[in-house]
Amino acid sequence: MSQRHSLSFGFIFLAFALYAGVAGHESFTLLPKHFSLLGYSPGTSGFIMSFTGLGGMLFMPLLALFVDNFRQKYILMAGYLIYGLSALCYFLEPSDPRLFAIPRLFQGGMITVTMVSLTAAVSHVLPPEQRSRGYALFGVLGQLGAMTGVSTSEWLFDSFGFPAFIIFASGALGVAAVSSLIFPEKRPDLGHEKPKPRDFLDALKNRSIYPFLYLALILGTGFGTMLGFLPDMVLLRDVGVIKPYYVAYPATVITIRLVASHWFNKFSARRILFVPLLMIPSALLLVASLQTTMGLIAAGIAYGVAHGVLFPVLQAELINRSAPNFRARMALLFQFMFNGGIFLAANFGGFLADRSLVLTFASMAAIGLSALPVLIIGTKSSPAR
After folding, report:
1. Secondary structure in 3-state letters for 278-325
2. pLDDT, average across residues 162-174
3. Tell me, what CATH number does 118's domain have?
4. How many CB atoms neighbour CB 196 within 10 A?
5. How far apart (Å, rounded) are the C-alpha atoms in residues 41 and 207?
């Protein structure tokens, strides 16, 4: 088999693992709906879902030490299996519902483990001249997985109940684990220098990264607010189902990535990021004033614009400001701040949610607006742009 075909088959296996894995883990965005129907308060649901971000943060130091030293196929298989098996805990009836935060902690950690490991695996499969296009297509498959997962899971949940939803989500994660295991990966080269804590201290001396890390935090707060409280708002306003948001959101991301990604490197960060950052509070305010399905679709489009641009551009700005031997760990640092935003939003929002869901979304929108002066005052063009 030629090297070209080997690379193609490797990419296909990874892409299918991404598609199935995202379909599985995005299905669990319906957990707040399940908790609400069980009678849990929005604050309790927000507390549980906040451990999505905390899990990602806690697993990152461990991931930084071993991600480059083991085959990615085994890391991926373990991550998907742990995620799927953790879902069985949701069938338990704990004395305190907040104990459901424990399986959510592991699930949040496994999201980070699998996404970082997939990124590392793809970087070795794609030749340099195909990486930009390959990463774009790879991200699109993830968004398609999100659309499939949430739409199918909500239909199963509403039609057949919670067990059917769990079977589908865990089954998708099992398919991702199998696809990862049969991925034709070469044994990694263990001869390179191992990561050291000192590398992080050296990277943090570069003050130009801090505005972009803050913007990553804000991106996470928007995602965390939607993750933790959107299902409750949909039920409160009797809009119907959450599916329109989770179709409009990834569809917008896909469109942005396919149509406009070639513009990302042609303008300064200030010009590229201003409108997408403005879309975060806009999406939250649309949910705060939610009355119809069209409002839900509009919120999905607004947040899709934000995520579609901010996620790749912020990562690129940070990586361009890091040493070559620290770039993978800079991506981890970005994920740490993004997960920190999820944790912050779900807990602070949860404190407000038991008083008013509208206040939750309005307050998080106000926090989101703080990104604009940071962008204008604190950022400069990347040295590699």
Report:
1. HHHHHHHHHHHCCCCHHHHHHHHHHHHHHHHHHHHHHHHHHHHCCCHH
2. 95
3. 1.20.1250.20
4. 10
5. 41
